[in-house]
Amino acid sequence: MRIRSFLATLLVAGVATTATAEDIDLGLKKQFSGRLVLGGLTNPSSVSFSPSGVLTVCDSGNGQVLLVKDGKAEKYITGFQTEYWKVDAETGAKRFKLGPLSSVWVNDKTLAVTNAGLGDGKETVVFYDAAGTVDSGKATNSVGPTSDDDKDNGEGNLTGLSVSEDGSTVYVAGQGSDAKTWVLSVDVASKKLSGLASADDAGIEINSPMDTMPWGKNSILALYSGAGGKDDGLIVQWNVKKKEVVRKWNLPGLTDPMGFAQIPETKSLVVVDNNWALTEVKAGRLARVNLPKEGDDAKVRVIGEKLHGPVSCAFGPDGDLYVAQLGAEFDKDKGQIVAISGIKKFTGKKKPAAN
């Protein structure tokens, strides 16, 4: 399905511009439709909504968090330090400039943001009660090395924030070192960040946790992307009290899943598959996923196969799915937020034939 061209006034990085949005082929099944919400971002890494329904975007490469109101983006938190996530071993080229990777509203007033451009062992989660700069919030501690591996410098690339139903805990996906993979948690009252569950300790070889989600009483789901370009993505249900695995499901057909969201009023999920590559943005996928009670494989149905480097998703108050994607090129002002309609009401079942 193509998003039709239109003129839109955008406020990105503090500069209002009028731009013509090009048609974007998301490769959606015919029962879905999409539209461009925001463009001109650099490596956008997270979409979320405030309790009152305000779209919140981590414009990661520009080191800021934006709020989108009435179709316009305004700066909310600025001044985050950025770093390049990868350096090409052969050419020395720096790639994937990243700063704040994730944000989540703890309540009507407080926004939690990962200060993820500081490097492994230095990163924190920062809480803000009003607009400001990176230093105007209250930060957690950082988490140092958790293994004896010389390459383990501590937890970093903090992402995938979610908040417990009672607002007392924020869950975090950490990617500091493949030597030991962690899902972490923050006690909101004390602002203490600590390791919650280690895949390695549970005998799970798949690493790179990317996103988290509360899932029933005393448990969360964690989404693991695994090795780049390999079909080894995984969803793990963790008991947060016992800190042990409840269930786990493979994600057949998805190579680099990076974000997920629960479809409202269902137990089904949507997952965005980045299909990551070091040198280019490849066609990514959007899939509807069901987690069966039996078996090791999730039921995966691809409903879009030409997204442009999707990394995060969240359902808005209008029932549409909002997706942050890198766009045609990373490290450029090509990043976008797109909205996809039709998922909430779609059951995946064919309507019965008319008599």
TrEMBL record:
- Segments carrying the region annotation (Disordered) are 138-159
Q: Please give the start and end residues of each transmembrane region.
A: none
- Is-annotated flag, keyword Signal? yes
What are the alphabetically sorted keywords of the record? Answer: Signal
- As given in the record, the signal peptide range reads 1-21
**InterPro entries associated with the record:** WD40/YVTN_repeat-like_dom_sf (IPR015943)
Protein name as catalogued: SMP-30/Gluconolactonase/LRE-like region domain-containing protein
